[in-house]
Amino acid sequence: MPWCERCDRFLNPNTVTAEGTCPSCGRPVDASEVRAVGTVPPPETASDDDEPRAPWHFWVMVVGVVLYLGWRLVELVMWAVRNWL
Fold it and tell me: In this structure, are 2 and 34 located in the same domain?
């Protein structure tokens, strides 16, 4: 984001003049920080390593839920066999 050192304030990219200067003091603002209005920033190159991963305790919970539901299924089958046979 553009910052004017002399005015010691943040400048919105829309408020920077077309020449890339501060509207109040007229000093140049860092050109690398200023983008034209309506332009899209360049896409960041992201690799597969940058993708967020699920935390380990999420996987512990998934395993616990699978074991619990599996056991409840076994109990359902045992109950059905006892009551219907």
Answer: yes
